[in-house]
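Annotated sample (chain length 68).
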Amino acid sequence: MQAHTGDQVVVKGHRIGQPDRKGEVLEARGPDSSEPFMVRWDDSGHVTLLFPGTDAVIEHLAQGKATS
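Output written by the structure step:
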């Protein structure tokens, strides 16, 4: 999975009624813009190091496309 600064990460809710969690990618720490990612979460403003799972999708905002 690859992401660039400014892309959006969406982590799908795990339970019925649980909202998706969204955040802005601040930095890709892996080789070739791969994970882990530093993410600022929209709901809390906290910055965390994310190792995305299969429930995560990257929305490349410059291109308007989503990849998982």
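Annotation: The radius of gyration is 11 Å.
Annotation: The chain has a mean pLDDT of 91.
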